[in-house]
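Reopening this ticket.

The earlier resolution said the output was attached, but the attachment link was broken on my side. Pasting everything inline this time so it's all in one place.
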Amino acid sequence: MTARPSATDATASPPTPDGVPLFGNGLAFAQNPVDALERWATLGDVVRLDIPGQEMYLVTGPTLIEQVLVDDHESFTISPAQRETFSGIEDHAVTTTTGERWERLRKALRPAFTRDAMARYADRMVETTRTYVRAWDDGDQIDLYREMRQLTVTVLADALLDVDIRGREAVVMNAADALVDRANFRRPGQLLPDWVPTPTDRRFKRTVTELDAFVEDILTERRGTDRGEDLCSVLLDAHDAGDLSLAEVRENVVAMLLAGHDSPSVALTHIWRVLDEHPDHRATLAEEAQTVAESDRPASELLSELEHTRHVVAETLRLYPPTLGVTRQATEPVTLGGYDLPAGAQCLLPQWPVHRDDRFWDDPTAFDPTRWERATDRPEYAYFPFSGGPRNCIGRHFAKQELALVVATILASVELAVSVDGPLTFTPSLQLRPEPAIEATVTR
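Inline output:
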């Protein structure tokens, strides 16, 4: 177990990593956020970061993360960085709103994510994946990350929105790329005033306009058809009841399309990569997949039999969380880990170092899905890939179900031999996308 320093009294200041003049700790963060977070987390469960113009704290103690997200959640709100990142694309979405509007949006979205809804989506997830994989020929060399993105966009649109998006995936993917590029800590123009136009900003506005028009067309079409129980229907029913504006309907569909495909596609890419490195686990998953493929029962009933598959998903999300972390801002003075933080303090709660902390995980950097078979007394928030508390990811059950069913469905048809072009590094942005090219050779 690694000891961490803590405050002896509430007047003490948290440790601060060494930085460089003018940029403080910002330069190291932009160069390699994963490496920086791992190093800084060893200084303590609360670390003050020297970020010019910001009162920023790194919080990596599970009990303190739970305090921020759950116990004292009313003393925190979403951070300015989160609002700025999604400004112009999700201003009226559940991801960026607070207070009464957030509560109203969350309530309106909830019927699309119930247990019964998940059961309805399961068969469509499987069938959409089967159809997609049939296009892969034996011996094909595929861009693994791109294929997983196109697949997750298609699965999400079909299952959650009841929309056939095939042939139009690029509209969503281009907007997601522009959003990630705008939030990239290394991008040129990052430090320029907002009113200075940059190529990144112009691309962002263009792709957002295209995505908004695409979603508006979907909603116009759906308003003239019989409603179901999918997300589009649920939101349009809420609009008809006077609970949501059309802007709120549109931007929440946009939010689901973006977040609902990007994180699962990153997770799937890592799953195939680690399975290629661990053929014993891949063989176990293939056995589970074949059993499911030969069954005529509903896919939702088969999830319980995909035990090792679900453990592989959980372990991959532990080692390679798709997002950089959760951010919050204190709305009043708070005390965390014995340190007094002022109102306005921004807190970064990163999954990567917490999920790999040897205080809570045996052999923390090893890929070991069997660890999820064993009962432990580790703190709940030593693992939080979908955030937590009232503002947890509303689509977390959809994502976990999708990952397990997609993996099993693909493994029932093909094997993927994966190759990575260079060391594994990540885009320094809101999504920890893999930077090197990752290819796979298909064997049917």
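Reporter confirms the inline version is readable. The domain at 26-443 is CATH 1.10.630.10 (Cytochrome p450). The mean pLDDT is 93.
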